[in-house]
Design goal:
Structural class: alpha/beta
CATH superfamily of the largest domain: NAD(P)-binding Rossmann-like Domain
Number of strands: 9
CATH architecture of the largest domain: 3-Layer(aba) Sandwich
Shape: elongated
Radius of gyration: 21 Å
Distance between the termini: 62 Å
Number of domains: 2
Helix content: 40-55%
Number of helices: 13
CATH topology of the largest domain: Rossmann fold
Largest sheet: 9 strands, mixed
CATH class of the largest domain: Alpha Beta
Order of helices and strands: EHEHEHEHEHEEHEHEHHHHHH
Length: 300
């Protein structure tokens, strides 16, 4: 069993830690934002470190589930010029980061004698709870083989896409596709409401058509209920991811006209102050400018 330092014990990270503990791994955690999940995983058997340096020093493998590569860098370097990850240690970045920054970070870790994998996840909070995440890996195949016993308790599928940065590239594209899909649903339902259609009947029609999809079934009931404060994937983070995807595409001279349209739709919602809400709140910018609400009609 491995000794693991885990950073990012939140909505996704907490159940991931629980699965690692259940598999018999030793896990040490450091508070990131909220005290409550730290207390819960400590009660289940995790140890709590005093600092990032203390946690990493005690571990063979460091896992980060943090919002950005800047957060990972601040954790791994802790204000120092050299990496806290050294010889015989491995850093696994399981957040969603910008691939060029990932490669720079990996090079700095390698210079200190450490190993690096980018291994972002998809599957959302339910996948994390169920130990059924899909893990999307970039990095050395031998390193992946060594850490598979750590990744497997958290996952249903592990895909290796190539060298460092390939995992984050695949994840950004996957998120981009999902966000574009949600943006299309948002525009369609805002359009239907503005046209005076019964949006509940419109949803029923779509559900029985070729336009039906898991994204439609997941998003629309949440919009109808106005449950934007129940956050699965924060709008600001979704915006960050699709901005990183379009930035990477610009560096590669790859045109993404639809994705860039989705960026503007999300920016509209953020301009109205909905960035801290769930990503389904991307519809709220359109609701605001069209002066409609996409909600079922009240029954007489």
């Amino acid at each position: 069993m491995s000794k693991i330092a885990f950073f990012g014990v939140g909505l996704m990270g907490e159940p991931m830690v629980n699965h690692l503990l259940g598999a018999g791994h030793e896990v040490v955690v450091v508070p990131h934002r909220s005290r409550a999940p730290i207390d819960r995983v400590v009660a289940r058997g995790a140890a709590e470190a005093k600092s990032a340096a203390d946690a990493i020093r005690r571990a063979q493998i460091t896992i980060t589930v943090l919002p950005t590569a800047d957060d990972v860098e601040a954790t791994v370097f802790a204000g120092q010029g050299t990496s806290l990850i050294g010889a015989g240690q491995t850093l696994i970045d399981m957040g969603t980061s910008f691939p060029p920054q990932t490669r720079r970070l990996a090079a700095r870790v390698a210079a200190a004698g450490g190993r690096f994998l980018d291994a972002p996840v998809t599957g959302g909070p339910k996948g994390a709870q169920d130990g059924a995440l899909t893990i999307i890996v970039g990095g050395d195949a031998a390193t992946l083989a060594d850490v598979r016993p750590v990744l497997e308790p958290m996952s249903a599928h592990i895909y290796h896409f190539g060298p460092v940065g390939a995992g984050h590239t695949a994840k950004l594209i996957q998120n981009m596709i999902g966000i574009i899909t949600s943006a299309g649903i948002a525009e369609g339902f805002a359009f239907a409401a503005a046209a005076g259609l019964d949006v509940e009947q419109f949803f029923q029609m779509l559900a029985s058509s070729t336009s039906n999809s898991p994204a439609l079934q997941g998003m629309v009931p949440k919009v109808f209920a106005g449950e934007f404060e129940r956050v699965n994937f924060r709008l600001d983070l979704a915006y960050k991811d699709i901005r990183q995807a379009t930035a990477l595409a610009r560096e590669m001279t790859v045109p993404l006209p639809v994705a860039n349209g989705a960026v503007e739709l999300m920016q509209l919602a953020r301009a109205f102050g909905y960035g801290s809400q769930d990503s389904t709140a991307m519809i709220r910018g359109l609701e605001s400018i069209l002066r409609v609400e996409v909600r079922p009609r009240k029954k007489a």
